[in-house]
Specification:
The structure is a single chain. With 371 residues, the chain is of the alpha/beta class. 39% of the residues lie in helices and 16% in strands. Helix 2 (39-55) packs parallel to helix 8 and helix 3 packs parallel to helix 4 (98-109). The longest helix is centred in the C-terminal third of the chain and has 21 residues, at 254-274. The relative contact order is 0.16. Bound molecules: pyridoxal-5'-phosphate. Residues 68-70, 73, 97, 99, 144, 148, 173, 175-176, 196, 207 line the site of pyridoxal-5'-phosphate.
C-alpha cells in the first residue's frame, strides 16, 4: 500500500508512540490530583507545553491543549466574536477549512457578519484583497497559514500587521503548517494560532491553541480548572506527550524532510510530463502537497482507480448523484472546469519514498493513457 494522503492524516511516529506508552499503561494518574502518583503526569504535561512553546517561539503559558484543530478553530472564532457588540464582523478567506467556514456560518446565524476574501488563481490571499474588508467593525481576521487542498503558504506576518492596523485581532489556522515549516509566533505577531497533532505524525484527537498573553479570549469549556481555567476537562496526557514528541522530531528534521519531499514532488511531476499527460498543478508551496488537475478526467474516478492499485490520495471534487461538485477551494481559485473536475491531491509525508513517487506517476499514466 502507498499512503499519499498525509494532508488528511499521518502515521504516528514510533518515537511519539513510545513516549505515550507509559502514560497509558503505568503513569495513568490524573494530572490534577495532588498525590505523588500523579506527579509524572503533571511533569509530562509541563514538559510537553514547554517543548511545543519552544517549537513555535511562544511562552508555555500561551499554549492551551484542545481535542483537535477543529476545536481550536471554533474556540478562536466563537470566543472572539460571541458577545461582541461593537466590532461584530469577522474577515476570513474563501478557501479556509470547513472548521473555519462552518464556525463563521454559525456566527452568521447568530447575527454576526463575515466577509470572505477571494484568493488569486494560485490560491494566495493578498494583503490588498484583505484590506478591502477590514474596517472599524472588524473584530478578527482569520487566514490559514497553509491551504490543505493546494498547499499555498499565505503572507501571515503582513496580514496580521494589517489586522492590527485596523484595531482587529489576527488568528491563523496553522494545522497544515505546524511541523512542516518554521513558525515564529513572535516574528509573525499572530494573536491566535490553531494546531492539530495528527498532521505531523502525532496522535489523532489532540491539538492546541496558541493565545498571545494579552489577547482577551474567554474559556471554551466550562468545568474544572484545567488549562489555567481556560479549557476544562481532564487532560489527555498520553496524546499531549505524543504530540510534543512528534513536533519536536519533525522540527529537528524539517530541513532534511522538506528537501526530500520536494524531490518526491519532482519525481511525480516529471513522470507525468514525460508520459505526455495534460495537467496543471494548482497552488503549491508547502513541501509534499501536490494538487494535480487532469483535463477531461474525473477526480473521483482517479481516486477509486488508484485505490484499486493500493494507492491512497484525495480528490478535489466529489460526485453526487447527478454531477461532479468541485471543491470550494478550486472554485474560488477559478480553476477551469474541465481541469477542476479531474483533480486529485497527492500529499507526501516523512515516510514516503522515491520509489513510491515513481509508482504514483506510473499508476496515473496507466489510468489516464491506458499504458
Ligand atoms: N484546518 C485545516 C487546514 C485542516 O487541514 C484540518 C484537517 O484536515 C483541520 C483544520 C481540522 O483538524 P482536526 O482534524 O484536528 O480537527
Amino acid at each position: 500500500m502507498i499512503y499519499a494522503d498525509n494532508a488528511a492524516t499521518t502515521r504516528l511516529s514510533p518515537a511519539a508512540f513510545e513516549a505515550m506508552r507509559p502514560f497509558l499503561l503505568e503513569e495513568y494518574g490524573n494530572a490534577s490530583q495532588p498525590y505523588r502518583f500523579s506527579r509524572a503526569a503533571k511533569v509530562a504535561l509541563r514538559r510537553a507545553r514547554e517543548t511545543i512553546a519552544e517549537c513555535i517561539h511562544a511562552e508555555p503559558e500561551e499554549i492551551f491543549f484542545t481535542s483537535c484543530g477543529t476545536e481550536s478553530d471554533n474556540w478562536a472564532l466563537k470566543g472572539m466574536l460571541l458577545g461582541e457588540r461593537e466590532r461584530t464582523r469577522l474577515v476570513t478567506s474563501a478557501i479556509e477549512h470547513h472548521a473555519i467556514l462552518h464556525s463563521a456560518a454559525a456566527l452568521e446565524r447568530l447575527g454576526y457578519g463575515t466577509d470572505y476574501v477571494a484568493p488569486d488563481e494560485k490560491g494566495r490571499i493578498s494583503l490588498e484583497e484583505a484590506e478591502r474588508f477590514l474596517s472599524s467593525q472588524t473584530k478578527l481576521l482569520s487566514v490559514m497559514m497553509v491551504n490543505n487542498e493546494v498547499g499555498t503558504v499565505q503572507p501571515i506576518a503582513e496580514l496580521a500587521a494589517s489586522a492590527h492596523a485596523h484595531g482587529a485581532f489576527f488568528h491563523t489556522d496553522a494545522v497544515q503548517a505546524v511541523g512542516h515549516m518554521p513558525i515564529d509566533v513572535r516574528a509573525l505577531d499572530v494573536d491566535l494560532l490553531s494546531c492539530s497533532g495528527h498532521k505531523f505524525n502525532g496522535p489523532k484527537g489532540i491539538g492546541f491553541l496558541f493565545k498571545k498573553k494579552s489577547v482577551p479570549l474567554p474559556p471554551y469549556m466550562d468545568g474544572g480548572s484545567q488549562e489555567s481555567g481556560m479549557r476544562a476537562g481532564t487532560e489527555n496526557v498520553a496524546s499531549i506527550v505524543g504530540m510534543a514528541e512528534a513536533l519536536c522530531e519533525n522540527c529537528e528534521e524539517m530541513e532534511e524532510t522538506s528537501a526530500r519531499l520536494r524531490r518526491l514532488e519532482q519525481i511525480v511531476l516529471s513522470g507525468l510530463r514525460d508520459a505526455g499527460l495534460t495537467f496543471i498543478r494548482n497552488g503549491g508551496g508547502i513541501p509534499g502537497n501536490l494538487s494535480l488537475s487532469f483535463a477531461g478526467a474525473e477526480g473521483e474516478m482517479l481516486l477509486h482507480r488508484l485505490d484499486l492499485m493500493d494507492i491512497c490520495v484525495s480528490t478535489g471534487s466529489a460526485c453526487n448523484s447527478k454531477e461532479t461538485e468541485v471543491s470550494h477551494v478550486l472554485t474560488a481559485m477559478h480553476i477551469p472546469e474541465k481541469y477542476a473536475r479531474g483533480t486529485i491531491r497527492v500529499s507526501f509525508g516523512r515516510y514516503n519514498t522515491e520509489e513510491e513517487a515513481g509508482e504514483i506517476a506510473r499508476a496515473l499514466t496507466k489510468i489516464l493513457k491506458g499504458r
